[in-house]
Specification:
This protein is α+β, with helices and mostly antiparallel strands and 431 residues long. The chain contains 5 helices and 23 strands.
């Protein structure tokens, strides 16, 4: 009943598919786990050790002989429910959406009113697509209700508390111990859906299963993103690197990291740079696979004191050697569609000490963090005039000089936030 192309229903079935098993194991396409085993330890590690792989391949080379005794797979049955954790406490059903056989679809945004009359704490989420072949990803958030429900044209999800992100391989998220997400009554559930066509008309009705906890946890689980919207890859470039970072302004505990790119993504990593300057790679994905994506959850969460940077780097292959490349002759920029590209890194964490405002995302702080994370190209913790877009340098020189009160040669976080605030006010006045 899962997404695999065949089911392990008995020895004969496995023996028949053993050449495929051998090939996918030797090429490391299966099991779908792409983290470097030499860096970090993660929960739900699907990988095979060298010894396990050797033992499996040797058995297949010997003809995959059947052992003695009863076949243990004979008593295995197709799962009777799509919900891995059992029946959810609340199922949110998104509006039915029709997908044509061909063409490109813009992102769809759905709103479903929260039917709960009381506030709840969520401890786990599963997103179950109606048609897995067309759902590229789904981002589930929640926020204040609008006047209408159904399909919307708003993409406010970046600034709303997140429940989870669905991508192939990342379908269920059990929140870390003593953390949760608080959903007040009277809110709405919002979902960003990315659909892709596959040659046949179909329809999708994705459902979101929410699991509640009886008691309030101590900490609110947070999800933030690292983006680089200045991404630009030249035609035919085989090894192009982009980077950005997120800097914690409070002490935090990091639970998991999520690397994301599209068809040109080749390798990805996350590094932690502590306030004392020490830097270490904590997650490396040397063979990024767009078809299998996941949050990598650390066995031991990482303590991140205020000032710590989470640096996300990705290498892209825009050459003809990349067989998945949609168009090696294109200049590739940041975009939502799969023939465009993204530098996107997800961070799941909590603050070390609970705060009054942990239940909501401060849009001004978030925008400041994202902008500083990709504008500060030398990653020295401040944005200088020379790092600003060339066309804007002359106009920002005076504000930068005024706001650089400590004469550091650039704007640090609080100064850069003030610059962003003033820039927004000036834009409104000019409008």
């Amino acid at each position: 009943g899962g997404i695999g192309p065949w089911a392990m229903t008995g020895h004969q079935m496995i023996q028949g598919f053993s050449p495929m098993i051998r090939e996918t194991v030797l090429t490391k396409r299966m099991p779908p786990w792409h983290a470097d085993p030499e860096i970090g330890e993660f929960l739900h590690d699907l990988s095979l050790s060298v010894e396990e792989s050797r033992q499996l391949v040797q058995w297949i080379d010997a003809g995959a002989p059947r052992g003695s005794g009863e076949d243990p797979l004979a008593s295995v049955h197709e799962q009777t429910t799509e919900w891995e954790l059992g029946e959810p406490d609340l199922i949110v059903t998104l509006p039915k959406f029709d997908i044509p056989a061909t063409g490109t679809l813009d992102y769809q945004f759905f709103e479903v009113k929260n039917p709960m009359e009381q506030d709840v704490w969520v401890r786990a989420v599963q997103i179950a697509p109606g048609d897995r072949q067309v759902v590229h990803h789904a981002i589930a958030t929640f926020g204040a209700s609008s006047n209408t429900a159904g399909q919307t044209d708003s993409s406010e999800s970046l600034f709303q508390p997140q429940l989870m992100t669905f991508v192939p391989g990342n379908e269920t998220y059990i929140y870390p111990e003593n953390t949760g997400v608080y959903i007040p009554a009277g809110t709405s559930f919002y979902t960003q859906m990315h659909y892709t066509t596959y040659g046949r008309e179909t329809s999708d009705e994705t459902r979101i299963g929410l699991y509640f906890t009886d008691e309030a946890p101590e900490h609110v689980l947070q999800h933030y993103s690292i983006l680089n919207q200045n991404l630009r890859i030249s035609p035919g470039e085989a090894e192009h690197e982009e980077a950005a970072y997120y800097q914690f302004q409070r002490d935090a505990v990091i639970y998991s990291l999520f690397p994301h790119a599209h068809y040109r993504g080749r390798a990805s990593e996350f590094a932690i740079r502590y306030p004392d300057g020490k830097e270490e790679v904590v997650l490396s994905v040397p063979n990024y696979d767009f078809n299998w994506q996941r949050y990598f959850q650390f066995k031991e969460p990482i303590d991140a004191p205020a000032g710590t940077m989470v640096i996300h780097r990705t290498i892209y292959d825009n050459s003809t050697a990349n067989l998945s490349n949609p168009d090696p002759s294109a200049t590739v920029r940041f975009g939502e569609q799969t023939w465009e590209e993204m530098l996107y890194g997800g961070i799941s964490f909590r603050y070390a000490e609970p705060g009054e405002n942990d239940f909501e995302i401060n849009a001004e702080d978030y925008i400041t963090s994202i902008a500083m994370g990709f504008m500060d190209t030398n990653m020295d913790g401040k944005v200088s005039v020379s790092e600003m877009p060339e066309r804007a340098r002359q106009s920002v020189a005076l504000p930068f000089t005024i706001l650089d009160r400590n004469r550091s040669g650039g704007l640090e976080y609080e100064q850069f936030r003030e610059f962003m605030r003033q820039s927004e006010m000036m834009s409104r006045q000019n409008f």
